[in-house]
Structures
1.
Amino acid sequence: MSTRVKEQARLEKLKNKLVRRSRRNYRRFQGVKINPSFFHKSQIKFLLMMLPMLIITLLPIIYIFSHAFKSLSELYAYPPKIFATRLTFDNFRNLILATSQTGVPFIRYIFNSLLSSTLTILLSMLIGSLAAYSFSFLKYKMKKALFALNQLAIMIVPVAIAVPRFIVMSELGLTNNLLSHVIPLLAMPVGVFLLKQFMDQVPRELYESAKIDGANNFQIYYKVVLPLVKPALMTVAILAFQASWNNVETSSLYVDDEALKTLPYYFSTLTLGTSAIAAQGMSAVASLIIFVPNIVLFILLQKNVMNTMAYSGIK
Amino acid sequence: MIMDNISSISLMVKTITGGNNSDTVDWDILKYIPDLVERLNSYADRLEEIYDEIDEMDTGVSGAGETSTLNVAAKQLRRIAKNPNKIGSKLQEFSEGSGSAYQLIGNAISYMMQQPLSIDCIYVYQDQDLPKATGSFFRKLWDGIKGFFYSFFDTRYNDNDVDEDTLEVWVGQSTLYLDIIQSMIDQDFTKDTGIKVKASIMNNVQKIVLSNATDDNPDAVLAIDNWNPYAYALRGILADLTEFDDFEEVSENYYANNFTPLIFEDGVYGIPETQSVFLLYYRKDILDYLDLDVPDTWEDIINMLPILQSHQMNFYHPLGGESSFKGYGFTSPIIYQFGGEIYSEFGIESTLRDENTIKAIKFMTDLFTIYNLPLQVSSFFEHFRSGDMPLGISTIDLYLQMKYAAPELSGQWDAVVIPGNDLDDDGIVERWSPSYGKASIIFENSDQKEDAWKLIKWWNSTEVQIEYMQNIKTGLGEKYLMLSANMDALKQSVWDESIKSVVMEQAKWARIPAVTPGSYVVERELSNIWNKVVIDKENVLIAINESVPKIVRELSRKADEFGYVSVNNPDGRPYYVPMNENIDRWIREDYDE
Amino acid sequence: MNKSKRKKVNDAYLFALPYFLVFFTFVIALIVISVVLSFTYYDTINFPDFVGLRNYVNLFTQDTDFMQYALPTTIKYALIIGPGGYIISFLMAWLLAQVSYKLRTVLAIILYSPSLTSGVLMAVIWKVTFSGDTRGYLNYFLLQMGFINEPVQWLQDSNMIFGIMIFVGLWSSMSVGFLAMLSGILNIDKDLYEAAYVDGMKSRWQEIFYITIPSIKPQMLFGAVMAVVGTFNAAGMASALTGAYPPPQLAGWLIVDHMNDFGFSRYEMGYASAMSVVLLMIVMIFYYVSVSLFGEKKDKRIR
């Protein structure tokens, strides 16, 4: 009995040792590879290399948060302090007070902004990916020319379009409308370019085999390609959001009715034309409020931006 | 009183240590201020006493946040008292900067003095339970939801169609001001004249150009920066206000020079609404300590500098300010004060080589190269508050900033008219300074020009401006107050008497460089000249000579564009540049005190 | 056979249509207008006036500010920041890919944040660092160390402004190209690496050059194009740093700055449009350089 137990114990120990060793090897290999699943001390040297850049880029984030909580005497401190020493909610209170006094309720502006940003994101993802799909997978006569035009649009910075664009918006009846915030921002040549590049990486064999299976283009687009280019889609979403949420221009130039304007415009009007002292605190809070959704969206979407895809289709 | 004591101890310490605030040097402070430790401890005791007294008064809250800073200040004083000889390096905690005991006490004082009382609703009751003063959470939520849905239907904000006869006016001010303006218009102007007005915010001047392209522009604009209308007048879309019969009645309220940037060819295209002034700010306590008088002319300033600088202090001039662009705001005053001019009469030659102008430019640069004025001060406010720049020139904004963001210094500083130059030795010191403010304009293509003129007249009239400033002060607070350009209104306005008289004295000396088709080049080159001489250490005459051909070329190019006389085109139309000497060609009636 | 071919062609137009509708109205039409305006005198208030090639001629013969300042500065800037920023973006993307998931999330947000914080980095950090005030970070440090006696006017000295612009520009070079390269690297098939190591590849450098970069060529191209476009079309940096418009003695003055000045401050929109067309030509040259470096060879795609 005891020898068997001893035997079993010995076998057990050997098994554990082998498992541990193979795990160690596996761990070592897993940890050192790209996109590791967990932390490993060899990663520290990479972190150190990134450190200077990280510190510099981290400071503004901290600043935006702490600036909103600073008391009046610290708001004007020079050099500006990154960390507020005396935290107060005064600025928030002042902002709420100021916003409650204006005719259109604060909530309405948030609603307008959320609605137009969401529309912008969804629509630009949709039409951008449709166009990119057509560039990447489909054949048609004007393809080369259209793609060249798209690239041209990325390269040019047309300074003279402010007035013509306004005239176009007016003539099309698109001013003074919730859609005025959305439509000018829908065409994103950069987005189409990005999506096309990612779609080019999708193996053609997948496309071919799907066709053989009888799928039409829309099905391939929706079921096969889109999931594979999620990172690019999410990046387009982030870009679209940035263009839309922070946009003051569409509200000030294309929309007349106060009730249809968006949040950043509203904040900018609170601080317009007032001397620095009156509005500093409020604008600090306003900056924070405008900033936070950007970060939140980025966090929500980044899971998909850095998604690992398995090309299991081929195997 | 404690604050005064702290302040004088601090000055003494600074003199003893010569400004050296390093930790390693051991000063024998106690030799000079023997009772320092006892004094500091006694201040701390007193502060704690005061705090206890206040705490008793407020039954609802324990440990009021604002006044608990008194406790913190007391602790700081005791800490310093433990190591008195190190006080030189502990000035941050003691008297300078926002964490110091000095500041904390000042903040507490200002909180205690500002105990506003606003009345929402008066209840007459008889033995019943009063409803709660602040609405319950759900009440507020329900109101909010109602408001949200209502905003879709509220005609004030959704109504796009305006009556034929409604005046459309844009205002370059924030919502906070706009609400006041609109309600004043509705209650007074519309009631009296029957003209309806729809005022909306214009937060981007670009909108004017854009709306003009679709013929959608408003009838008039209020509160537009006074250097903007010229470009529109030049291209023909503004209405010439001198065509109205009662223009001179209106212009009587302003100093003639306030109109300069609004003048184009033969007409005047705007009415000044607000103005700005430069003032000389000084620290009473520090000047007293150094036994100096408040300076009157530039000579006085130069004479003061050695004393200031031996105490590690200096004088601030806006040329050494945050921005490296030295615009007309900073360069033109000195040029005018020295008797120079910026434009020639027809605007095509450069006056920069005139004797007086050269003298002025030399002075502007000498201040920095020879007299060591600081070259780039990012926040004069900070330096003024901490005392190492006890004298400096700044705008009215600093007054408000000091009053509200540096309450600990109240009573320790004041403002006077800026130093000038006694040009002709006639006893009159010339203190020219520019006044950049807002203006009102009317568009040429408006079909209601008469009505718009009525509105502008009404808006800029003395009574209305007085009432407007009053409403701002009570509704928004003094921090939001502006200076009306209407001198009669300013005289009777709600500004504090002490600062008001100084402002009115300085407003007399308003003198603004005109805007001409190519004027920006002169402004830019002046800035470049300053930069070349002060930073690159070039010789003044050489720098001027490098810039003059550039200026002349650009002025001519622009003049050609519009068909005026230029070096290339001597047969063009003559262009008369408005300036102090010839302003009466356009403004015949102006403000007389 | 005919029917399916027709169907395929129809599909393509359906896919492309929505995008191109918006694109043509809001992008192409405006570019065309811009080009047309480049042959006119247009002050944005009155109707444009046809002047033929005058704008272009003036640009190269009369406009000394353009030839002496804007053009050379922009080319220098683009040649340094373009490749420089691009390499940094790639490096950061690669470094991030070496780190595990949770940490990477946080770090990626931090690195990308300059584009989200819209100028705070510039205003708060850099302006204060290089301020000529005795309390500016750099001056304060140097004064304390005794290296200098008086604060240095970093942002007023026309000789130093460009250098500072380069330095600042490199720190903010992480933008959408960075994101694209990051997700590209993360999505490379791990089997490729395993196979390569089994085959005897030794160092990580080899790994980068033989596996990583070739696998993400499309993203590399994207990043390169974005870098080229971004640096040539940059504007406003010098003005933001110095607080001056225009910066002293036109230091750090870029082509787009010059364009905006003529278009908006001097009301010479026609001339500004001509400049934008010239800039486009320059950018196109560098675009084709990038394509030749990173573009896919034709046979890889469906033609």
2.
Amino acid sequence: MRHIRCRPPTPLRGVAYYGSRVSAYNYERFDAYVESGQDEREFASFPNMLHAGERAPDGELTRLDGGSVRLSELWRRQGVVLEFGSYT
Amino acid sequence: MYTREAHPGEHLSAHGDFEAKLAAARRLRDELGITRPILVDDHAGSVHTAFGLLPNMSWVLGRGGTILYKAMWTSPERIAGFLARQAAQPSGLAYAPFFTEQLELRRRDAAAFQQGLERNGPRAVGEFAHAERIWAERARATRRLDDS
């Protein structure tokens, strides 16, 4: 059988390539994510985006205890302390 | 706010779908005893992306959504101190907010972090070790550029 070499697919907008797998966000390998340089870009961008005094982005989230809520509903009446994280 | 898995491994892999993400968030709540409300971002990480994609950042938002505090990492002590200063601030027409920027230090508990990786599985441990070698090589490459 003739071996056919294929070019990798054209990167999709908003999609990062980590190793040989396409991952829009949920990378499977931490080392591949670091190797891609994406970690460096994210940490370098952070000081230059969304500054104190500006309005925070809004978005819809699922409450683990049921239902959904927009961030703007939470901050409408009181301040919000937001910590981002995961089990791992 | 629950995000993508920062260090996926055999015991908890990257979320294949939103249901998997919800299950992981429940594990965090139940196994680590989190009592604060947990909000789960969508599978694509839309809100996480909008706020900058860092794995453990923290933010304090005022009424109306004004950003009052943003940090690359989470320090309960720093946040508590900031909230205490906010509560003590006077108000009135004689006072106006102004922007500041500062660097903070955080204590790195290598043993606790390693335990966390081991809890995720041997692959998480190995991949982090590989990442450390990548970072070390990047730092050497940067020094070579600076020296040239």
